Amino acid sequence: MIKRSDIHTFEDEAFLKRTARLSAVAFIVALVAGAVVVFALIASGVVSIDPELAAIFTAGDAGTSFRSYIAWFAMAAIATVASLIVHELVHGVFFKLFASAGARVTFGANWKRGMLYACADGIVYTRHQYLVIALAPTFAVTALLVLAGVAFGRPVVGVFAAVLHLTGCAGDWAYAEEIHLDPAIAFCMDTDWGVCFYAEGESDGEVSRLGTGAFWDIRRERRMSQNAPVPNRDTPGTSPTGSSVESDAE
User: Model confidence over 194-247: pLDDT tens digits?
Assistant: First the structure.
């Protein structure tokens, strides 16, 4: 395997600016599309407008309208927060599904960047597996929000939460874009700081393929454990060849 590129999700300013632009575009496009969907559903008689929204416009006094607005806003906020959590759980499900037995998936948050994340640190996936992992929440969670909104008689809440959820998918789309734009990328190694992309080819002395969800320490000629130092991560205590800085004596 030959390293092609990597993305430091929380430190790469160019990547963060690109995801911010994608989020802005996604918000505008999804908001327009969502409004069309809602009006189409209501016009066709499939659903009616959220009762809380209807009360805002039909209530006889300002107090009732204000309470209805707060109730609707609270439901939308809860649905949005829940969607972000479910989003990472979907990533986690596919991380586990495509990894070898015993693979460890962790979850966390970078509060400085306002990001939740799922991580399968040091696990290698094929190009197509990683695309599925990255894009699954975009489709699964968005559809779930819209369907849940319809099922619970709050279609506008569902669509609005879906719109906000899509703005949070921009990082996943940027990962997918990186893979799409480089046809040579064959493998993707997830890390606790982002992702490394690798091409097919003779080993460069760092890592080589060892089945789904595993990789090999070339220098020490052994399978690496889930918590072993990950080669080519530029982390303290790890040399460029992927072996520990400490003596090779076992």
Answer: 999 999 875 544 444 444 444 433 333 333 333 333 444 344 444 333 333 333
pTM: 0.78
Q: Measured in Å, how far apart are the chain's first and last C-alpha atoms?
A: 26
Using CA atoms, how far residue 52 sits from 47, 49, 107, 160, in Å, is: 14, 8, 35, 14
Phi, psi of 7 (to 5 degrees): -130, 120
Where b means 16+ CB within 10 Å and e means fewer, 214-242 reads bbbbbeeeeebeeebbbbbbeeeebeeeb
Q: What is the pLDDT of residue 61?
A: 65
Q: State how far the Cα of 49 lies from the Cα of 156, in Å rounded to an integer.
A: 7
Secondary element (H or E) of residue 119: strand 115-119
**Is the Cα dihedral 111, 113, 119, 122 positive or negative?**
negative
- What letter would DSSP give residue 109? E
Q: Measure the CA dihedral 53/54/60/65, to 10°.
A: -10
- Please give the C-alpha separations between residue 88 and each of 72, 125, 147, in angstroms, as whole numbers: 25, 18, 19
User: CA 134, 136, 138, 144: dihedral to nearest 10 degrees?
Assistant: -150
Looking at residues 93-107, what average pLDDT do you find?
Answer: 91
